[in-house]
Design brief:
Layout (H helix, E strand, L loop, with lengths): L1 E6 L2 E4 L4 E9 L6 E7 L6 E7 L5 E3 L7 E6 L4 E6 L8 E8 L16 E2 L3 E6 L1
Parallel strand pairs: 2-11
Antiparallel strand pairs: 1-3, 3-8, 4-5, 4-9, 5-6, 7-8, 9-10, 9-11
């Protein structure tokens, strides 16, 4: 079993920056990819960023590219998501997820490609 716990959400103002954290625990954590997703009220869960655990490859959704930075601390099994220039439309529950299956030819941007999920952390951006 793998447990993922997100933290760092809260209420911020438009233009602020914030870093979310995702801490993994349980058995040895060695996924293929860790991703950050978000889900706004009434909308589907969407990927915002992913990082390959054993490489440097990252992926960012077009809608957020340039404002987000995903990084990981392998020694502590933590993944970070730094968001700058926050906007009200960034308001959502942010989830981290880990994919253990190696799937060729995919950027790991689909919910079903992930095996473990955290409970999410709410981020609310006011204008």
């Amino acid at each position: 079993q793998v447990q993922l716990v997100e933290s760092g959400g809260g209420q911020v103002r438009s233009g602020d920056s914030l870093t979310l954290s995702c801490a993994a625990s349980g058995r040895s954590f060695n996924p293929v990819v860790v991703g950050w997703f978000r889900q706004a009220p009434g909308r589907q869960r969407e990927v915002v960023a992913t990082v390959h655990w054993n490489g440097d490859s990252t992926y960012y959704a077009e809608s957020v590219e340039g404002r987000l930075t995903i990084s990981r601390d392998k020694a502590r099994s933590i993944v970070f998501l730094h968001i700058q220039s926050l906007r009200p439309e960034d308001t959502a529950v942010y989830y981290c997820a880990a994919a253990e299956r190696k799937l060729d030819g995919t950027p790991y941007n689909k919910v079903y490609e992930y095996d473990w999920w955290g409970q999410g952390t709410q981020l609310t951006v006011s204008s």
